[in-house]
Specification:
By secondary structure, this protein is mainly alpha-helical. Helix content is 55%, strand content 4%. The chain has a three-stranded antiparallel sheet.
Length: 155
């Protein structure tokens, strides 16, 4: 996803939109695309029209905390096993890049949580909770974003 240089939101609106996760309606398989209304004019218009939904508003704080505890649990698997997970979840076009992103996230301290989220979400999908497949996709996106961030020096 590329940032549109000409698209700018006022600071207060941008801060409000960043506090949550926005998803488009699920497709026939139950997967949803993530919307970035702070970066994209199309996604912002979808928020204004009510097309995308705020998943943070759908759950309570205690429920989110418990899910986060489950998804953030440290799990390390072999790279071959990770590759088979990625092959089962992703389409052929995005398998290689997603696998490489997760391998790099596994080695990086700030992106390691996205790696754990992918594995734990995959295990939940395997146990029959199909709604967690979206988290598999989102965890790779989060890992990409975390890997792009440069380390800031504290003064």
């Amino acid at each position: 996803m590329e940032k549109n240089k000409s698209f700018r939101l006022p600071r207060k609106i941008r801060k409000k939109l960043k506090k949550t996760i926005w998803l488009y309606p699920p497709d026939k398989n139950g997967g949803s695309l993530m919307a970035w209304p702070t970066h994209s004019q199309e996604d912002y218009n979808a928020v204004k029209q009510g097309v995308v939904r705020d998943i943070m508003a759908e759950s309570t704080k205690a429920k989110r905390k418990q899910e986060k505890k489950i998804l953030d649990k440290e799990v390390i698997i072999l790279d071959e096993q990770l590759k088979s997970y990625v092959e089962k979840v992703f389409e052929k076009e995005s398998r290689n890049s997603s696998y490489l992103t997760l391998i790099e996230a596994k080695k990086t301290q700030r992106a390691k949580v996205a790696y754990y989220n992918f594995i734990n979400a995959y295990h939940l999908v395997e146990s029959g909770k199909e709604s967690y497949e979206t988290i598999c996709f989102m965890s790779v996106d989060v890992a990409r974003d975390l890997l792009k961030q440069k380390k800031t020096k504290k003064k």
